[in-house]
Amino acid sequence: xxxxxxxxxxxxxxxxxxxxxFFRRKAEIEVEYSRSLDxxxxxxxxxxxxxxxxxxxxKDQHLLxxxxxxxxxxxxxxxxxxDHATLNDIYTNNIIVRLTQISEDVIRLFKKSKEIGQQMHExxxxxxxxxxxxxKTYHMYHAESISAESKLKDAEKQEExxxxxxxxxxxxxxxxxxxxxxxxxxxxxxxxxxxxxxKYSENKLKCTKxxxxxxxxxxxxxxxxxxxxxxxxxxxxxxxxxxxHNSLARTFRTFLSxxxxxxxxxxxxxxxxxxxxxxxxARSDKHKVMDMYNQIFCPPxxxxxxxxxxxxxxxxxxxxxxxxxxxxxxxQLQSRLSTLRIENEEVRKTLDATMQTLQDMLTVEDFDVSxxxxxxRSTESVKSVASETYMSxxxxxxxxxxxxxxxxxxxxxxxxxxNGSNLITKLQAKHDLLKQTxxxxxxxxxxxxxxxxxxxxxxxxxxxxxxxxxxxxxxxGDMETFIQDSGQPIPLVVExxxxxxxxxxxxxxxxxxxxxxxxxxxDIKNAFxxxxxxxxxxxxxxxxxxxxxxxxxxxxxxxxxxxxxxxxLDLICSIKIESVVERVHHIQQIIVTLSRTVIIVMRYLFxxxxxxSQYSDENMMDPxxx
Length: 626
Hints:
The chain is an all-alpha fold. Helix content is 74%, strand content 0%. It is rod-shaped and about 210 Å long. The two termini are 52 Å apart.
């Protein structure tokens, strides 16, 4: 048994050693990855800092939206570098230290358990030795009792034999002189019988006592052995296991917390980048560039009439004999403009249709690569599926060829449209000046045409998240739609989780910071998806941290966040306001623009968080932490 316990301890030590080696190597990989990311970010950041565009745009703090995305990608790379360096520190100075302590605990507890086990074995050996001694004593007295009983029976047989002889020769004894000798023989036999009877009684008493002692010791020994195998061995194993599983669970939970927080930090950074990607705007960037280089893009001053050699006339002369010629020229221009406008309008319509086709090609949603992350046992099946997807080489080449062909057609039409509009502009200027000069009525209503501006930036449609099994979308859905469809002013998951935490978790240390059991979080989530309430008041067996995890999971997965992404930059700007009163007013102006359903949920949530922060002395979660 002690050998088995020793083998178990050795296997645990080997497991802990493998875990330490694994996390040590993983920490080295993380720190190498962190350094590589930092070098990568610094390389391109230095390149950007040396560029003139960076100096110019940084000076006025107006970055073009693509440049802003590029900066955010570099910042995200630096952020991931720091996070992976933090992960290395956690692995090295937390998890490996915990595993080392657990190894020391396993060795120490096994030694103490082995000492106790050896002591218990000595006690059992002592008890069995005593039982063996008592058994031998019983056997000895029992043998002596049997021997005394046999001798007593022999004496009784001799006495019976002597009495039978006495009856047969009683008459002869009266005639002879040897009667005194016969009587002496009978007395000897009776005396021997009495001695043997006393010896038998004595031996029988000793045998009875020895048997009682043997039976008592036998019962005690059996009880001691049974207790050892039924209770003591189990308790001994518990002693050697003392705290092993709990300590190992805390170590793995530290690992999970680090990984989950790494993913949370990564998602936060990616959300910022996604917001910047959503705000990519060609029109806004065009205005920024033109404002930045306003001297270059600003229209020049008009050319002034330069008289020659003292000529003081600076207007078109409509007097005879040129008046008739100007009038004829005016009508020719009017007819020519009418024809050109019709032709240019047809070109513009073709140009708009071509632009729409290009926009459709450029905004196709080919960015979803989730299929590439579906784990499959067969790598061949993954390759075969990938080859048939939208991003296969054949499809890419075909789409690129179509796009380039459409671009060539677009630029041909655009060039033709520009030439036509420029000609119309010049002829229109001549037409207007002649009209003014000839003194005809009102100005022509026809204005100068301009090339069509770019269509408004198409809004990218997010890929819908998986629908809930609930009748209405709950997790990963739209909260406002759910509230309107279900008639619940506060979604059941929010109300139930907050009620449960108010009842049982206000003093829970690290609430909303310590992660719960992922399996329990999924179970509670699935129950809410089915329309059930797993957190009714008479069921408090759920872990507080798991319930808090469900509440975080709900808000984190909303299709439209509680604080809308389009107001994100406005809220961030409010942080820069130094005056508290102005800052509060600014935030209030932002919040009041939200829908009433969102504000109701927001007030309900923050009233609860405010109440929870009042127990910060117990739960260690002040308003800043929350």
